[in-house]
Amino acid sequence: MFGSSLSFVVRSLFDQSDRPFLLMFRDKEEAAYYLNDLEQMVGESDVLFYPGSYRRPYQIEETDNANILLRAEVLNRINSRKKPSLIVTYADAVFEKVITRKELEKNTLKVAVGDQISIDFINEVLHEYEFRRVDFITEPGEFSVRGGIIDVFSFSNDNPYRLEFFGNEVDSIRTFDVETQLSIEKQKKITIIPNVENKFFRDKRESFLDYISKETVLFIQDTELLVAQLDKLFSKAAESFEKLNATVSHVSPEELFVDRKTFLSQAELFTVVELGSNASFEAKENFTFSIQPQPSFNKQFDLLLSNLSENRSNGIRNYLFSSNETQAKRFHDIFES
Question: Do 220 and 255 share a domain, yes or no?
Answer without folding.
Answer: yes
